[in-house]
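Incident review: delayed structure delivery

Summary: a single-chain prediction request sat in the queue longer than the usual turnaround. Root cause was a stuck worker, restarted by the on-call engineer. No data loss occurred. The affected request and its eventual output are reproduced below so the record is complete for anyone auditing the incident later.

Affected input:
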Amino acid sequence: MQKSILCIILSLLLLQTAKAENPDTITVYLTKAGKKAITKDSSDYYRIILPPDSNIDKDLYRVYEYYPDGSRKTIATSFTKSGNLVFDGTSITFFNNGKRCSTVQFKNGRPKGPLTFYYPNGALYSIFKFDDLSNGYYDGYYNNFLSNSNYNYRLNVVELRDSTGKVLAIKGTGHVLIFDDDFKKVTIEGDIHNYKKEGEWKGLIADSGTYTCIYHRDELKSGISYMKSGNHYTFKEMATNAVFSDGLAAFQTFIKRNLQYPESAKKHKATGTVVVGFCVETNGTVSDVKILKGVIKSLDEEALRVISLSPLWIPASNYGVPLRSCGSVRVDFYYNM
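Output delivered after worker restart:
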C-alpha cells in the first residue's frame, strides 16, 4: 500500500503529456509509473480526457482512466488537458475489482482536505490529512512515504483501521500499518503519538532486506538495516548524499591546489568554467568522469585530470546501505593576463 499511495499521489500530481486523437478527445496509454507507454499493448492503463461539460463547469476537463480490461481506474477533473494536468475538485480511484481505492480533493493542482483509502474488500483503510508545507520544512513523515520532498506535503493519520474495521490509530495516535500494492504484506509499521513517530518502526527495503528504526517525537535516534546478502548497516539518517571526506570546501581546495593552467590556454587567453560530471562508487572512489559542458580541449582535459585524481568520498546511502551516485562540479579557469 505504501507504493499504492505514493503512485496515486504522484500520478495525480505528475501526469504525462497525452497525444490527441482528435481535437476534442485525448487518449494516452500509460505505465504503472505514469509514463507514456511505448505501445498500447505495453501499457498498464489508459487515460481519456474529454472537453469540459458546460452544464457542470466550463473550465474543467473530464479525466477518465481505465484498466486494460475496460474497468474504471480514475475519475477526475483538470484545468488542463495536456502536459502536467492541474487537478481541481474530487478525484476518485478504483481497484481493478471495481471497489473504490481512494478519494482526494484538489484545488488548483494541490491536494486539499482529507485523503481517504480503502481495502480491496471495500472496507475503510485510512484517512490522512495533508499539511501543505510549501512555506515550511518537510521532514518526511514516513520513511520514503513521499519520495520527493519538493511536493512539500506531510501526511498525518486521522484514522487507520485493519481490514475487519478495527481502529488501529486515530487522531494521530496508535499503530500504523502501510501495505504493499496488493495488500498482501506490511511494508512499514510503527507507533505514532500526537502525529509523531514514536518508538520502534520496521519496514522493508524493496526486496533487498529490512530495517528497524528508533524514533522519539519524530526524530530518528538510530537505525539498522539487515540485508539479504548478510550485511547489516547502522545509520542515523534514512538517506544521505555523497560527500567529500573533508567537506565541500576541502574538495574545492583540492581542485585549486592541483589545477594547472595549460600553457596553450594561456597563450590563447582562454578562460571559462568547465562542468565535469562524475560518479561516486560505493567504496568512495570517483568514476565515470566526463565533460558535461566544456570550454576548449586543453581546459577540458585538465579539468578531467584533476577530478580523476580525487581522494575518497563518503558514498551516498539509503538505510545506511552505500549507494553509487552521480553529480557534477564546476572547474573555473581564469588567468590573470
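Verification: DSSP finds four helices and 24 strands in the chain.
Action items: add queue-age alerting; document worker restart procedure.
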